[in-house]
Fold these 4 entries.
Entry 1:
Amino acid sequence: MSAHTTAAGHDDGHVHHHYTTTGLDNRKIAIWAFIGSECMLFASLIATYLIYKGRSIVGPFPHTEYVNEAGQIFKPILDIPVTSASTFVLLMSSLFMVLALQAVQIKHLPLPDGAGWWTRAQRSSQLWLFMTASFGAIFLMFQAYEFTAFVHEGLTVKTNLFGSTFFTLTGFHGAHVTAGVLWLTSLLWIDRTRGLGPQDELIVDIAALYWHFVDVIWIVIFTLVYLIQ
Amino acid sequence: MASIAAPTTAAYASGENENTGIWSWITTVDHKRIGTLYLWTALFFFLVGGFEAVLIRTQLMRPNMGFVSAETYNQLFTMHGTTMVFLAIMPLSAAFFNYLIPLQIGARDVAFPRLNAFSYWVYLLGGIFITLPILFKLAPNGGWFGYAPLTTNRFSPGPNIDFWVLGLQILGISSLAAAFNFITTIINMRAPGMSLMRMPMFTWMSFVVQFLVVLAFPPITIALFFLLMDRFFGTTFYAIAAGADPLLWQHLFWVFGHPEVYILILPAFGLVSEVLPTFSKKPLFGYNVMVYSGIMIGFLGFGVWAHHMFAVGMGAVADSIFSLMTMLIGIPTGVKIFNWIATMWSGEIRFTVPMKFAIALIALFTIGGISGVMHSSPPADLQQTDTYFVVAHFHYVLFGGSIRGIFAGISFYYPKMTGRHLDESLGNWHFWLNFIGMNLTFFPMHFSGLLGMSRRIYTYDAGQGWDLFNMMATWGTYLLVVATAIFVWNFVRSRTRGAIAGNDPWGGATLEWSIPSPPPEYNFAQIPEVTSRYPLWDLKAPEKTAGIDHSHADAMTITDAHAVPVHEETERHTAKELGIPMPYPTVKPLVVAFSMVVMFCGLLFLRNGMFAVAMTITIGGGAAMVAGLYSWLTAPLE
Amino acid sequence: MSMLRLRPAAPALLIAVALLTLSACGGTEYPNSTFNHTTDLNTAIDDLWGRLLFWGTIVFVVVEAALVYTIFRFRKRPGGPAAKQIHGNVALEITWTAVPALILVLIAIPTVKTIFETQAPAPAGALVVEVTGNQWWWEFKYPEYGITTANEVYIPVGRTANFVLRTKDVLHSFWIPQMGGKRDLITNKTNNLWFTPNVDLGTNAWNGFCVEYCGASHANMKFRLFTVQPDEFESWAQHQASVAVPHRTPAAPATVTTASNRQPPAPTAPAEPTLGYVFPAADLPDHVIPKTPVPARLTYDDALLANGDPVAGQQSFMMGGCIGCHAINGNPMAMSPIGPNLTHFASRHTLGGGLFPNDDHHLARWIKNAKAMKPGALMNTIGIGEYDPILKGPVTAGLTDAQIADVVAYLRSLK
């Protein structure tokens, strides 16, 4: 938690005029160390999910039907089309993040004569930060919908090993997305109040690194949990 | 605020010109002060853990003793392990990371000074959180390894394990925050010319350790999170009835637990690698190999975790693989031992107290290493695991190794930290009583273990052939009490009575010895430009370093840093006089740490079904933490 | 520094102590020694251990000698030579990387060989003993004979015993130090450990322990292993497999008739001599006889035991809640698998997870207040007036001391 909080916009690190060995800002190095640590965190969660895969005693199960003693039928619980849509949303948000960073980098450049709407849009960091955060929020709504639906269908964290591992793994990821949305929202707030310029490239860059990391992790989760049966 | 030129006056040594009020300690962001806080706190917990050990040994002095109850004993051995690992040895190492790394690499502070303060406060509060329950006989009682399913609600319905789970989560945050900080510091804050292969060995070993922390703590965070979810929210990660596999806990725990062993020992290796060359008047033998072997140890340390699990029935193939990996790790460790001996070879060995501790580390760690190779062989390990033989083994590694390295470090760096020497003759008493006590306590455990005495038993029957060994171990422990008392007396007394040390009392080779003792808040008035591994020897004893590469730093940004050739700094000025911007003191890291611990405390109330209370405290703490963080991050550093 | 001169002597002193102590390890003074050759398993392990100790000792002596020699020879002396500034030596460093590697290879090869040997499936014809760990006692089942017993396990010499290890609750570990290595009992998993006691081992008794921390009374979870001759084992097994019949002592013949009113008249009742083999109490080595002290605050008048009535005791056993946990084969009301099976309880030498000798003195106190006898014991407190930590007050519905004497007499009759 500490690294992304310190990287969240303001300077805990020594600022640019300080000499650094690599020439990079301290925060940039810290965020990479943090992401390395996060990899191990998700690796542990994913490994646990895989170890417990197929070992639940009672259903509902992710990919297969389950009939309990009372004859009640539980359909395979994962809704792959819906989650594919939410995955697409999250991927798109990564694209917007790239555009947001680019906007911060180029917004000070003079607009060429007769620049079209796209060229103008490319310089609007507010637009792209807003889009990124919104798509992150939409992803979270998908997840809230999914969790609610599962609970209605009879799967909670207490039901079986699948329920415990599934909700914990995707919930952990959801918490990361939530933190990211808050982070992006605060960047957007800074952008609206004082405007982000090229001198702020670093703080947007760090947020982008985190955001792309969270997206990549989701691709892994989506593949291992949803796609592979 | 007078700056005093002569480094030999008492006023100078006591750091009179610095603000020393209690508030200055609470709000400090100075890495040296934080290091000092770590040192005092960790020494306090070392005494607590030691006291627990004394009670344990008294109960085991004779067969069928009734000195403490079974329940109390189980709490004591759990807390002894937890305290020594998480609250004593790791933070003692952290004290040195904090104090030394910036000095050794020629930096004015760590990369994130306020985060550094945050790490300390989280450690202190987490330590209190996990230690206090023992006063109410509610301490964790599932062992420091906390194997599921014993630690689940069904078998441990009380709040004891809750304290352990939440306490370790809190402490983990402290370690991780510190690790990100030191990785960044070492990568990015080195003085011009201080290439990686010129870093002092302590900094190198610390560097390796930070990577181990960053990669090893997440698995235990997750393992603990599962347990926390099981205990508070009814998930099934370790629930037998749901078909859970208790080996999941063991794998996650030991994926952390084995690198943790190297987290505990490598800083000590680093410290003795500073001490041995200094008192042999020779450079470290085979610096490169020492670096590579440290990296190898750290790397292989991630591939050997299941050697803690040879008895669980993993199958012949897995047992063989983990056995061979474990044996491999013996090679880089052996190289270190031989290189240390070669460092002393043909030197001029001065037997100061730190040198004695360093030599004793080599002697005793070797014993722990050999018994380690003995249980890398699974069939033999089946006769040894969970017996006192293993207790003997890891106490030779941790008490014979880590603690000896730390005592070497304390006696070596005490003059740098305080400006005064520890008393030599008290130090000798401490060393010898500790050395004898240590061997008297732990060597007999090899025998009681091989003769069938299992671990973690609060009592044993008469006539099993273990009586003599236990009696010896207990008397050895009492000797250690005397030794430790002498050390504490020396440590406290020498702060005001010790002989004045000066910049460089031992003839050191590295940058920390070029600045006054204790160092001024800004460390280096001018950032030095380093041209070899032994910058201070280049300056003061060039004949020692004539045989190694010297070069000027790659020209990169040296002009930015206004670096100057390495020199001894004897003038003492304030940062303001020198125009060095220093970080503002701030209480915000403490506020954030405190609210975070409050947030964790809230969960404790879930046990009594006080859902509303729990949520109020947790959400209140969380909100205070976020507010504190916001205020912290929006305030300028310096 | 006079102390300095002691320094080189310290490791030598240690070695001397070590050798002296080790040399004494074989004798009966160390009854749980792991250095035995009593089975195929521990012979294999000890061969390996011998190698480890051999190389370990060499490394120890070389390193410590080099260290002591170095610090002695190169200590700073007035007028001594100046330090030589050596930064490293590639050849030397390769040597002390390669030599330990070579030693490790010499250890690794027999290690892997022994792993595969000792973890192979048990040979055909092995005697299967199903071991179930419980907090804090052991259950042993012999599917071949239909036996269920607790805390004492008999195996014949010369035949491989294959222990099938499971646990009902938390993790435990099964270890008989003198027979070979240990193996954990893992929840939701079945483990195996097998060994063959040497034919020439003789009839003997050995200590067994739980070695995985399992909670409050981990230290008190012990068992006894009896290696017996094949004919003795057959006799023991046949009898243990039979249903429980209260065997009266000749001194109390009058009670037999009253007993037959309640129970089907047991045809085997007169056949007193058909009792199977039991390891003779007189031959028990000292170290397998528990010496655990009884808590002083737990009082019981042993004089009552002389008047114990087994028939009344059986009644109390049925009515007093005992059958809620304990099974006695042959008693259709006592079938619960929760606690130890008491079918041939009187043939056992210990009680309470191997914690106390199985005599009337200890048994009465155990029944009265097991939790006081053994920390955390899950058995209910039965003696009226005893403090019950679950009720947080004195027991009101339980047995009086006289009734306990009856139950003792009943259990004593289950030979």
Note: Chain B has two domains: 33-503, 593-638.
Entry 2:
Amino acid sequence: MKSLAELKELRDKVKKDMKKRDQGTRPEIIVGMGTCGIAAGAREILKAILEEVETRDIDVRVTQTGCIGMCEKEPLIDVRMPGKERITYGNLSTSDVKEIISKHVINGNVVQELVIARHSE
Amino acid sequence: MRELSLHILDILENSRKAKADKIELQISENPGKNSFIIIIADNGKGIKKELLENITDPFVTSRTTREVGLGLSLFKNAAERTNGDFEIKSKKGRGTVVRAEFEYDNIDRAPLGDIATTISNFIAANGEELEIIYEHSFADEKFEFDSREIKKELDDLSIQSSAIVSWIQEYLAENIKEIRGGEAF
């Protein structure tokens, strides 16, 4: 059985892993978690993102948002690379998520065929 | 929704949007009394009285405000079709409490589903901004989780770090399985 005492050990191991709140310098992935997103499978999408981030040991900020009005294209995610336009991907499966992380988040190449919107902010 | 935990995730998102920084989730399973109760209480901005009266009616809800949507109506319906009960109370500026009761053995009661992943994912995306206090009981067995206690052990390490989130997921799954006598979900 796991106990809270293990956390200290784990903490020291991953200290270097991630420092609190330094958005802006890290890539950010935002998952649509409105009712529409959840009904379309957003929880599994978020799970796949977290697994991929952990497997590849990359420094990414993962957050969630509510319904953005594109319910029919759920599940969807936004990827925001530092200093680049925000890209919205839609109609996603968990395998698309892996592709987006390896091509876009790691290598900086937008996965054109999955893009549903672009926003420059 | 196929699982009650997806309804819970949906209500958690409402609380997050309402700027809550503390959410209490209570799940009480009592097969002996044929009862399954879910309570979600937050300290978010609350819902004004006029809106609260009609909040579970999907056709009264104004989409432009985006304060509510289909989520509460679906949750209410999920409870009522098991001869259950649904209640929402809210005070502007104070917070909101949602309570759903289900008949435990009703054929229309959706399974709880993967509540451990639901909560750990929610922490992965929001854990720095809010606290989640989760209490789960099954008959006489009880498990309690408090994100503030986790943070105490972490110093300046973020609760949203992936290694911590996976640890939380496993910790929750183990404990839920334990109180439920071997079945995590």
Note: The mean pLDDT of chain B is 92.
Entry 3:
Amino acid sequence: MSDRSDVIFVYDGSFDGIMCCIFYCYYEKTMPSDIRPSDEEQLMLGAYIDIITDCEKAERVRSAIKTKLGEDFLKIVQRLSLSFEEDRELLILKFVILGFKYGRRVLSRLADNTVNRVMKVESYVAKEAHLSLEFLRFSDYGGVLVAVIEPKNTVLPLIADHFADRLRPERFMIFDKNHKMAVIHEPGRTEIIYIDSLDLPRASEEERKFRALWRSFYNIIGIKERYNPRCRMNHCPKRYWGNMTEFNDDEDNYSDKPSLSEGVLLSDDVISSADMLSESSISSESSTEV
Amino acid sequence: MELIEKLEILGDSAKYDAACTSSGVDRRGRNDGGIGNSYACGICHSFAADGRCISLLKVLMTNSCIYNCKYCINRTDNDIPRARFTPEELADITINFYRRNYIEGLFLSSAVIRNPDYTCEQMIECLALLRNKYRFNGYIHAKAIPGADSELISRLGMYADRISVNIELPSQQSLERLAPDKSRSSIFLPMGHITAKIQQNSTEIVKYRHADKFAPAGQSTQMIIGATEDTDYQIIRLSEALYNKYSLKRVFFSAYVPVGDSRVLPDENTPPPLLREHRLYQADWLLRFYGYRADELLDEKHQSFDPLLDPKCNWAVNHPELFPVEINKAPYETLLRVPGIGVKSANRICTARREAKLRFEDLKKLGVVVKRAQYFITCMGRQQQGLIITEAAVMRQLMSASTVRKLDGMQSMEQLSFFDEKSAAPTLEDYRKCLTGQM
């Protein structure tokens, strides 16, 4: 394979597009220095090659991965494609090349730099998907549940099933503001659509009542003698707070103006003792490696 | 009384209970018009200002209590506002919180109103509403009321995913002194009953595939730490026995926050023993996932955990004859005993070494905390290059960052030169004195 490190592949941004980049790389024996989606401004110097997405070629690559490297390998590749990392496409290409070289056992080569990075990027995507299951909040607008999220990675395809299963008889929408897409669900039907923006009506009295109940429960449940803001932030990073009911006063578009209410009082001596003991994170759900 | 006021009173009274996990059962949603499913790994939904996870709506049915347990905020002679949910009110809040993804389900406990049987019936009524009327398929954790009829506990367990009986205090003597209305047998009797029921039920399920499951996520308990003289050794021996004898899924520890009768308990200015609670949880993890026995961690002569070192480091430091171990050969169980290697990284080592020999620079990629592990391992027969093994250097690496910060703070305050190479290296004893304030 000629390693023309100045060649940059440009593709349409889709998963099939990435598959076609892999196809091109193998059949034209050209290793790119980078792979960029076409909607990006192209500032780098070098030779650009437009990769045209062809479903048939994409399918050939996909099924080769599936039969030679297995379902798990393909799943990892799919999750990588949802990552927000700049080099995700190139990482996928390198990973697939390594896969065809070593076979299924490539997944055990955890100390290899490419495989190691693949695992880290993949677990970051999976982790953010899990945090979205935790911190996403619905509001009821006349019987339709609506949630707004702002994840770094494209997590919607990974969380849609969870909510579709859990809230089967409900109608709901989860809007990903960063990626301008949404999952919509009604009984028996769930799909992902692309939308630019979402204007929400004012919340009803009933909705405000439950928000207020939740907020007061949240504030009361913390034990002030154990105040530990660092531990809270480790488990629940501040960038999620803007869309969480308990951290916002009741004004409707709260994702725009996070007010970050602290919940429990801040006194200096409580903070210093909590600081000293910050290792005693006591989330009963998370595992402690000792 | 306004609903919001009730929720505040009954949440406030429930908050000292440590358990808030929604784990242990996998269940898909159903097509019966109800909502809910459940994941074995558990899902936290928020984190309170104290850093503890909020997974379930944790409340009491009522906080009016006929008992006068001295450690408890809800004791009869404590002057606090009292409230009581109706089963309908609580079911309605639970469903509405659940739909909005605030919670994974309900954690229902109660103070004892009128008598244990009546209290238990009230709880059953609420759970029955949730399960039958609302077809709620999410997670429910119910607290068994000591002294309630075993038939009622059985019914409670048919609605709940997890059921727990609080052991409250680690020993008979402490219980007699502080909870005169509860006897050890009133706690262990329902616990034994629940264990038997879970076992009986699991054999029944083999026979009838559609039998309802009794507490499918198992049984847990909690005890209060620091309200009594009971030692760490007694506590972890008790936890070990609970895991082995009663097949408990979890034992929770709750650092005592002074809300009790200060004539017989630590006064209101006593900070909750958070470090001690943390050490106990670390030890608990070692019992459940690392294959340690309680008497390996502590014994008659050593009744308390070291404030400076976690129990695993402490064990390793006291067993130099077993180290170093070879990363490329040691069995999984041995790797688990190396400080800095956890369950995940031990698994990764076992996987990765099948493909290629591992070097020191690979270990970080696998998630090993090399600064700790380096003293206890070799890679391809060699120790880490340039490794300085003095007691002071080793201790510094093994202690947690916050402990080191604290010691350094003392050092600069008191002008002690711990790490001055000319003076004799400080011993473990020096560190301990430093932290406990004897120096």
Note: Chain B touches chain A through 85 residues (CB under 8 Å).
Entry 4:
Amino acid sequence: MPKVPVEVKELAAVFRVGNFNEVVTGYSQEEALSEASRCIQCKNPTCISGCPVNINIKKFIYQITQQDYAGAYFTIRATNNFPSICGRVCPAEYQCRKVCVLNKNKAGNVSSEAINIHFLERFIGDYGMQHNLTVSQKNNLSKNKIAVIGTGPAGLCCAGELARNGVKVIVFEALHSCGGVLRYGIPNFRLPREILDAEINYLIKLGVEFKTNLLVGKSITLDELFRQGFSKIFLGLGAGVPSFLGITGENLCNIYSANEFLTRVNLMSAYKFPQYHTPVNIGKHVLVVGGGNTALDAARCALRLQKIQGIKPSVKIIYRRTEMQMPARQLEIQHAKEEGVEFKFLVQPKEFIANDRGFVGELTCLNCQLGDQDVSGRKRSEVIAGSDFNLPCDLAIIAIGLKANQVLSSVTLGLKTDKYKDIIVSPKNMETSIKNVFAGGDIVGGEGTVIEAMGMAKKAAVGMLQNS
Amino acid sequence: MKIISKEVIADYAGVRIVRLLIIAPEISQKALVGQFVVVMTTETGERIPLTIVQADPQGKIITLIFQEVGLTTKALGALNVGDNLYALLGPLGKPTQIKNYGKVILIGGGVGIAEIYPVAKSLKQAGNNITMIIGARNKELLILENELKDIADKIFLVTDDGSAGVQGFTTLVLEDLFKQDKYDLVYAVGPIPMMSKVSAISRLSNTKAIVSLNALMVDATGMCGCCRVTVAGEVKFSCVDGPEFEAEKIDWEELGKRNTMYLDKEQHICKIII
């Protein structure tokens, strides 16, 4: 039995930085078989509890070893509607792989011995997609129709769960294209558009109807949806509003929120300008502020834009703590390093300085040191007074997190929110303070992962099905 | 999203201002004065905001008026009756607060004239006394003159070249009006230099001025922050907190610069595609 973990194939950094093609090319059948055979099929598997939607990991890996790929697919699909997406974007190293018994490093970064569960999931998801496998669907158990607001991970997952249970689902999306953060946020090189389109088409095959260009709260209210005959509503609104640093010069030209930069590049395809008409600027010295996956996505997009436009790549990520505290996925940090993204740790922005045309020219920074643990359990970053220094910066991207979008909550009487303006739900079934209105994803828990949003959406779907 | 009427309401030396009537049942029912829509002409196009000039819920129609200035407005102007837009989202933004303020001056510069039209109509219905100043480069580009004359208690026409009304700038007329009388509110839409001048003049006369900003936008639902503007020292998003703000609180210099962010790209794409 091979004991060596099967490394996944990737495009070499030199070949991938000039385009937006997918970096990780995935397992072949042989590789998947070999990796699956490393699983020791624990009597009491811990990996399953590490998955927010409790995929029966032990079973699907066993099915792979038996070359029953269709069986493995249906095992995953029993609890996860989007294996091809999750297999690509789940931070498995913090979830299932972290609690895999083969992981030798329980405290820090997951060790390479832990089974590459996510790559196996991706292999099976793509297999199912290529072989047009479809799960069985209950026939019209309920005469009611349910409205799902938002087409991000939570909305798509909730719609899938409901549709499989025979409910008529209509999904509303404000943008012209569906997928939410999976489309506007996560770049093609991590999640190809064809994969996302295929997963959405799968829902359409289940009878889910998508209505784009409708902003619930503006175009239509929740009351009106109920009057149109929807028996229940699910809010998967996401955490939509970008936070800024609040420092001097932050509104200079060429300072973007990560959301804007990524939306231009990913949703609007600005990297194909002028064939696509939405512009995005790029600079010679790009600074990205933040330490999460969004910061890395933005940095890697910026580096590709520099390369495509013949600019010598120079992208620095500025993070006020150290690599150990970065919330980003290890794999993405590693990919960014391979591609030439530089990291400036223990540095905090102080002030953006303009050039003579009102564009950003420099960033004044401060050095930091790590202090005691803060409420998040991470070591606090403390500024070292008088440590000011300047970095050249002709384009900056702020990726320091998101807040709740209040477009809907501000016009919906009785919808209770917390101090962060996140929607308050019953932990039992995800129902909000308004009867028959449920919610899940980032609008409930603040920023989380794709699979966490899906976990909440599934719980909400169960709650909605119980009394429909 | 189907275009059912198209009219070129001004055409001078290649500068065209176009009026489109578009079937938009939901938007026409919801739209309030001062709100806007986001339009995409094609799948490869930009998302651009345009003020809803008129909404007819019975006919399920909205009216948009725009000047062909960049690639996207030119592409929109090239569409014909029967064509469909690729995307249309709205109504967006906060509506104008319509009430009886008393004596109101409305100022429209260029295609901004179209945007003050619905506001003027509603303010008139709310009992306000309406003085209007509308300005453009020349007589040909001075739009909606007749419609506005029907609403206004007093109207001043201004052109850069004097081919209609007074020669000069709308703000000169505003200064004159303040010398003669007191007003309760100023409402202005036009180019940024005009609006910032209106702001300064109104402030000197202790009169509140409201402007509707045309910031650059992408999603226009509060998600990206492209349209951010500093108002009273705080960062606001034009799309969800605006598009109207109290003029004297706006950081005009910053806004002016932000709106030039893509000038070179705009010139580039217009050169190669048109």
Note: The CA atoms of residues 102 and 175 of chain A lie 43 Å apart.
